[in-house]
Design goal:
By secondary structure, this protein is α+β, with helices and mostly antiparallel strands. The protein contains five helices and four strands. The chain is elongated.
Length: about 140
């Protein structure tokens, strides 16, 4: 029996979409012990406004690039990671899955989204992310 059968990939995908992730895509991988998803976390206006307010409060630099990259972008990145991790932890709790989350990139130009890879595994503790990323050409 394949791990993807046990993990019920459709319900995991539906859970991710229903809880705010977009462009959720199941990825094929050579090892059927793993279930992989690529997805986006899209920032809403309130989150972007909160990041800007944080940057205004914390940044003493006059340089707009520092204000944007060091404060706004890092705030949004951490927000996205924390939010996606919370969703995955719910799945972990319900299905007893091991997982790894990989931050792939962020739309730094428009600050609209962050892209992630989520790897689930039912039986094995060791998830070799570098091997998976190399296989997927990410």
């Amino acid at each position: 029996m394949k791990v993807s059968d046990i993990m019920n990939k459709e319900s995991i995908e539906e859970f991710l979409v229903c809880n705010g992730l977009s462009e959720v895509e199941k990825l094929d991988y050579k090892d059927e012990k793993f279930l992989l998803f690529k997805c986006l976390y899209e920032f809403d206006e309130d989150e972007i406004d909160a990041a800007k307010a944080y940057a205004d409060d914390e940044c003493e630099e006059k340089d707009i690039d520092i204000w944007r990259k060091k404060y706004i972008i890092s705030y949004l990145k951490e927000l996205a990671i924390d939010t996606v991790e919370e969703l995955i932890e719910e799945i972990e709790e319900k299905l007893q899955l091991k997982w790894k989350l990989v931050f792939l990139c962020m739309d730094e130009e428009n600050m609209e989204f962050s892209k992630f890879l989520i790897v689930f595994n039912k039986y094995y503790n060791e998830i070799n992310i570098q091997q998976i990323l190399k296989y997927l050409h990410l």
